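hey so u asked for the seq, here:
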Amino acid sequence: MDKNGISVALIGVPLEEGSGRGGCAMGPAALRIAGISDALSDLGYQVSDCGDLRPDAAMDLTPNENAKHIQRVGAMTRALENAIYVAAEGGSIPVTLGGDHSLAMGSVSGMARHAHTQGRPLFVLWLDAHADFNTPESSPSGNMHGMPVAYFCGAADLGNILPEDRPLVDPKRVYQVGIRSVDAQERKRIGEHGVRVYDMRAIDELGMASIMQSILQEVAAQNGLLHVSLDVDFLDPAIAPGVGTTVPGGATFREAHLIMEMLHDSDLVASLDLVELNPFLDDRGTSARVLVELSASLFGRRILDRPTRSA
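ran it, structure tokens below
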């Protein structure tokens, strides 16, 4: 990736209603305090912080206990879809600072619209402990952060949040890496729709490098754009505790950096989500700093370039 002249648009999404737990709304502020803008600027990118999206609730959406806080999540989805599309069409790499993972309904949909105007397919790399392929009918909790993948693939009916004729993502172009907590109905649905799932056993057996090479080769072969959606709980909780949905046995610090370095080398990444950071549950900003370091790796900083910290 040639950094000269490349602009990065930081878009804050203080959304927590999709998770059913308070705290994620503080995520964008924590990422800024941890130095996300300086880290990318130091790598040579032109960074523009677009501030936080704060739309009014979408009162035209009908409340639904099986899709909790749909008016709030729906409003943010609309605002973020447009903000991402405008940033991408303007030549920037949008980086969404979240915020719970329901925001991907907007970020991925915005990139799908951009990819459509470019005449290129959109692929999604979903780095998460969870598949997030629930629907209002299948969700055990009704929390919408468990529904974004189904939504942007057109497999979840959430009313008229976005137009029915919007560009969708082919489920076969969604790669879920690090999965280790899937609801029973989700497991059946992701199999029926052909989502590519690499759970932790696959990572142990095949190795992260081999999995990433396979994914990146397929995206490159189809001249695709790649959206990366990174959930804090993709990482092992010992590395990044600041998340409300911890699942033991996640990716290691080095595995995560390897992914980011390979993504940078591929020159395929068009957009990035950083989601589910809950500073209220974090340990002195540890998780926020890890997300900033991983973002820096994706944008070109090597792990060997990291300075040694004093104890």
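Residues 257 and 294 are 6 Å apart (CA to CA). The radius of gyration is 18 Å.
lmk if thats what u needed
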